[in-house]
Design brief:
The protein is mainly alpha-helical. The chain is built from nine helices and no strands.
Amino acid sequence: MADSDSGDGSARLLLVEGIALLHPEDAVLEAMLEGWARQQRGGRRLQPKTIRDRQSVVRRLVEYTNEYPWAWSAGHLDEWMTSLIARGDRAEATIRNYQGSIRQFCDYITSPYYEWAAVCQERFGTHPVQICHEWNTVAHLVEYEAGAERRPMTREECQALFDFADERVERAVRLGRKGALTAYRDATVFKAIYGWGLRCQETSGLGVTDFYRNPKA
């Protein structure tokens, strides 16, 4: 394995090429999970507990299917979800979170930027695919889950917030008062949070370069 302090989650840095692994399947799985953790820590600035919880969901699916991620199919997810729902001890929000974790993990291991598909094809003769689709995952059919203490803002409330933020900018400019730039920054941040579904911590870590396309991705 490569140096654990590396911030890169790519397969080539996590697996030393040319060296035979004693248990290649397990080694590649652990490297995938470690790389995904680095990507979440470095790119999205997620908390360690959130990352561990998501890794735990991936391990549960591995255990349930008795298959490694590069052998997963949409059918495996369907069977696991059916099993969880049949037990009746998982809230809809929990099911959605599980699916979200698997979707993001599959996004990571299928991204050409991280090279896991190429590594799996070389070592195992197959490659991972995205197994979460619109037709086999829980949709956001309600505005908020029953019993939730907080709820998302409606479209009308979001528009009212954005209009108020824009009005503060226009008012400061019109009256020649200080604070127009600060108000414009706040209005832009609100729209960025809504438009990209960002958490507060993710938003605070944004830089100018985050608004450019990544040609490798």
